[in-house]
Write a structure and sequence with these properties.
It contains 16 helices and 13 strands. It is an alpha/beta fold. The protein has five domains: 130 residues, Rossmann fold (3-Layer(aba) Sandwich); 106 residues, no CATH class; 68 residues; 50 residues, no CATH class; 36 residues. The strands form three sheets. Strands 2-1-3-4-5 form a five-stranded parallel β-sheet, sandwiched between helices. A five-stranded antiparallel β-sheet has the order 6-10-7-8-9. It has a three-stranded antiparallel β-sheet with strand order 12-11-13. It starts with a strand and ends with a helix.
Length: 422
């Protein structure tokens, strides 16, 4: 006799389905939610599961993920009943391995006919092919954290292989549900938690589970529940930072002027992040991958740089221009000083070259003005004043040094004199 597990939060619907199935020659059991269904599974061992898609505590799709990830129950076919018009969830359920998705309300005769058809297909499949023991799927459908939780719930041993975009590969090894090692193809694989966090950050790609005994060198020594807690906390913070940035495939550019302007606000160890931003722009995902180490810290640095406008999705192409010193600004604009300085020097030379004799001109007034101008002190530029100040400071320093040397010499002479007397 074939056994069927009915999972539905509506007790009346579940009861009616159970009665009809028993009348049709099936053995039936019911559960009001996914958690109760998972407890019933090991003892009841159903041949097929009929489940509502919307369930309390855990959705029908999440319930199916746990069943399909368990090597002892992964072969059980799923039939979903749904009163929702959400097409995406129905497509997702079929992609995840559901045998059928039937719309409510439905006739019992149609359900019984579908169940017999599916059971016949699965019997034929199991008799003609060896039993598969490698659940696989997309990371976008079932997250890495979800996979680790399921392995812990099922107390499973084996290895989970991950393949992400850009030729990134990783493996997580589990022993009786506990993660004992994590490694990636682009890491040193010494710190297992570091590689585990790296795999957690992958949002696309595929996975496959190979169940069996493992014999590997541990690089993770934290209890599994603590690993789950730390991973959840890390992933939540990492996802929050990424949400504040553009999509990870966005090209970022460095604004050097803004970088210099905000240099005192940036941490000392931000250099690797800056160096990995090329002149032609670099993707956010590539920056995080290239920096290695703590991906969470790298993402936090990118967020800080983005908020300060040091990096942006637009190529600003600005250059840093140092400001004029304050002492030069106080004397006048640097450009004006540089332009006027040569003219002043030329004018002074011309006026002092050949002074006219007072008797050579008949009008004394016309001669007096240039004589007075040449006799007086010329107007000093900012550069001349600065030079005089430096000269005065230099002379004062030399005098002080000379006095100090005289004092030292006198002290030495006095010391020698009195020592001779003694």
């Amino acid at each position: 006799m074939k056994r069927i597990l009915v999972v539905d939060s509506d007790e009346q619907v579940a009861s009616i389905l159970s009665i009809k199935l028993k009348q049709a020659g099936f053995e039936a059991a019911t559960a009001g939610n996914s958690a109760d269904a998972l407890r019933i599974l090991p003892e009841f061992r159903p041949d097929i599961i009929v489940s509502e898609m919307i369930l309390p505590k855990m959705s029908g799709i999440d319930f199916m993920k746990r069943v399909k990830m368990n090597p002892e129950t992964m072969h059980i076919p799923f039939v979903f009943l749904s009163s929702s018009r959400d097409v995406e969830n129905k497509i997702l359920a079929l992609d995840m391995g559901a045998a059928a998705v039937l719309a409510k309300p439905l006739f019992i005769s149609d359900l019984l006919e579908k169940l017999k058809e599916i059971l016949g297909e699965y019997e034929l499949k199991n008799s003609s092919a060896s039993e598969e023991n490698t659940p696989e799927g997309d990371i976008s459908d079932i997250s890495v954290l979800n996979i680790l939780s399921i392995l812990l719930e099922n107390n499973s041993s084996g290895e989970v292989e991950f393949s992400a975009s850009s030729d990134k590969h990783g493996v997580i090894f589990c022993d009786c549900g506990n993660v004992v090692r994590a490694e990636t193809n682009d890491g040193e694989n010494k710190d297992g938690m570091e590689d585990l966090y790296k795999i957690l950050s992958w949002s696309d790609g595929t996975f496959s589970v190979n169940y069996g005994d493992i014999d590997v060198e541990r690089n993770i020594f934290i209890p599994q529940k603590k690993i789950i807690e730390k991973s959840v906390e890390w992933f939540r913070e990492y996802s929050s930072i990424l949400r504040s940035l553009p999509p990870v495939d966005t090209m970022l550019f460095l604004d050097f002027a803004k970088f210099v302007e905000n240099l005192n606000k940036l941490p000392d160890d931000i250099d690797p992040v800056i160096k990995n931003i090329g002149e032609s722009g670099t993707k956010i995902s590539d920056i995080i991958d290239s920096c290695g180490g703590d991906r969470l810290r790298t993402a936090a640095y990118l967020k800080q740089l983005f908020e300060l406008s040091v990096i942006s999705a637009e190529n600003v192409n600005s250059f840093y221009k140092a400001e004029s010193p304050q002492w030069l600004v106080s004397c006048g604009k640097a450009a004006e000083v540089e332009e006027n300085l040569p003219e002043e020097k030329t004018e002074i030379v011309e006026n002092t070259e050949k002074p006219e004799e007072p008797g050579e001109s008949g009008e004394s007034g016309s001669v007096a003005a240039p004589v007075e101008e040449s006799a007086g002190e010329p107007k000093k530029s900012a550069w001349d004043e600065l030079a005089e100040q430096s000269s005065r400071r230099g002379k004062s320093g030399k005098i002080a040094l000379f006095v100090l040397l005289l004092a030292i010499a006198a002290a030495i002479i006095i010391f020698i004199y009195y020592r001779g007397l003694i």
